[in-house]
Amino acid sequence: MSEPKQIATLPPLEELHGAVPLSRRTGEPRRPVVLVVAAVLLQLAAVGAMGAYAWHWWLAAHPASYGRSAWLIGWTDPAPGKWLSLTLEVALAAALALAAGAAGIAGFQAWNGWRWARWAGLVALALMGGFLALTHWYAAMPVGLTLMGAGLLFLPAVSRYFTQWAEVRGQRPQPYRRPEQILYGRLPRFR
Question: Where does the chain cross the membrane (predicted)?
Answer without folding.
Answer: 33-55, 83-107, 119-139, 145-163
